[in-house]
Amino acid sequence: MEHLINPKVKNIQISGIRQFSNYVSQFDHVISLTLGQPDFPTPLPVKEAGIEAIENNHTSYTHNAGLVELRQAASNFLQEKYGLMYQPENEIITTVGASQAINIALKTILEEGAEVILPAPVYPGYEPIIQLCGAKPVFVDTTSTNFILTKEALEEAITDKTRCVILPYPSNPIGVTITKEQLADIASVLENKDIFVLSDEIYSELVYDSQHISIASFPSMRHKTIVINGLSKSHSMTGWRIGFTFAPAYLTEQMLKVHQYNVSCASSISQFAALEALTTSKNSPHAMREAYKKRRDFMYSRLIEMGLEVVEPTGAFYMFPSIQKFGLSSFDFAKRLVEEQRLAVVPGSAFTSFGEGYIRLSYSYSMEMLEEGLNRLEKFVQGL
Ligand SMILES: Cc1ncc(COP(=O)(O)O)c(C=O)c1O
To answer: If we measure between CA atoms, which residue out of 42, 29, 23 comes closest to residue 235?
Structure first.
């Protein structure tokens, strides 16, 4: 019967991150700097709101788009923090993490043969969905433009089949953010074209040295942009699975159908916790951001001291140093690092072939772990 399985599903590869963590799991005493997951507990009032929701029997289906109070809170949060205006009634959907938001957005706008432009190296969560839709990912190499999609590279990649451009800033795996000027350049290319933008802003609360800005804040871009956000990274709520789409009503109406027949609604309990996160606990990301910033400074200076070339990240919690000078593939480098020093990092090739020659380190770990991990990395590179 296996031959009857949808070939589009069969052709999806398991993620390089998963492949590598399967390999690492056979070793003991490994320090792992692989996860893109905050190490802080979910803020206490948010946890209590979840418990209260259960105790008060808020355990039934909600509106497909989520509790209206939650959508209102999400709308207020986006307006207050980034100056974006979305109507809770018809422009916001509460999803099962940012992952499901990406899923329903791409399913709504893509069809067979459509092309999607992505700056690479890139988070591996988009490509499989694009392929399931019968569409084609078009990766643009950003390794020589500081990992930012430039106007010129974008212009070159656009064809008459381009349906969507993904803007994943602040970025995973590099941690770069995009400036207003760079976004204005991109907007100038796209504003007169019938091309959607999927702006994945899941790390928007983790921007260290500037203000986060969304392409949807450009009046010429709002009507064609789907903003993705969520609480996984900002409020350390990865397991609660709450994300959002913010998009004009004509898009939200269509995405809501895909969402409805996919999950009906996000967990009611998590929605009550999220409501607390976006109201009374709306500033809880600040303390976490300060802690990440210290860790970033520490990791960055250690990598520079050990002679690695790395872009100083301005957002998210990743670093993406080059290992090209050692002449090993990123997978072999990461494999030997585990075998010889018991340190796990993610091979850059997990983020498309344009990530070859790099490794991704996450600094969403305690200072003690970072220090020990970086000592191990230093010993390893000194021995190469
Ligand atoms: C860029 C990016 N988008 C989306 C997600 C998925 O977020 P969620 O856990 O809310 O589904 C991640 C998770 O690592 C990510 O790095």
So the answer is: 42
Q: Are residue 183 and residue 74 in the same domain, yes or no?
A: yes
List pocket residues of ligand 1, CB cut-off 6 Å: 36, 97-99, 123, 125, 168, 172, 200, 202, 230, 232, 238, 243
Dump pLDDT digits (tens) for 153-167: 999 999 999 999 999
Quick one: DSSP state of residue 222?
G
Q: Is residue 253 part of a domain?
A: yes
What lies within 8 Å, CB to CB, of 308 at 6+ separation is: 321, 322, 323, 381
Instruction: Say how far apart CA 191 and CA 107 lie, in whole Å.
Output: 22
Give me the mean pLDDT over the 198-209 stretch: 97
202 CA to centre of ligand 1 in angstroms: 6
Alpha carbon separation from 380 to 104, 165, 296, 374, 384 (Å, rounded): 43, 39, 21, 10, 7
| Same domain, yes or no: 86 and 233 | yes
Identify the domain containing residue 308 by its residue range.
Answer: 2-42+284-382
The pLDDT of 137-143, averaged and rounded, is 98
CATH of the domain at 373: 3.90.1150.10
- In this structure, are 157 and 75 located in the same domain? yes
Distance of CA 98 from the midpoint of ligand 1 (Å): 6
Please give the distance, rounded to the nearest whole angstrom, from the Cα atom of residue 17 to the centre of ligand 1. Answer: 13
Residues 256 and 219 in one domain: yes
Q: Which atom of ligand 1 is nearest to the CA of 243?
A: 10
Give CA angle at 104 (315, 263), nearest 5°.
Answer: 110
**pLDDT number for residue 19:** 83
pLDDT over threshold 90, residue 356: yes
Where does the pLDDT of residue 20 fall: very low under 50, low under 70, confident under 90, or very high at 90 and above? confident
User: CATH number, domain at 88?
Assistant: 3.40.640.10
Read off the tokens for 362. Answer: 């996450």
- How do beta strands 346-347 and 359-362 pair? antiparallel
In the reported structure, the alpha carbon of residue 6 is separated from the centroid of ligand 1 by a whole-number distance in angstroms of 26
Query: What is the phi-psi region of residue 6: left when phi exceeds 0, alpha when psi lies from -120 to 50, beta otherwise?
Result: beta
264 has a pLDDT exceeding 90 = yes
Is the previous residue joined to 285 through a cis bond, with omega within 30 degrees of 0? Answer: no
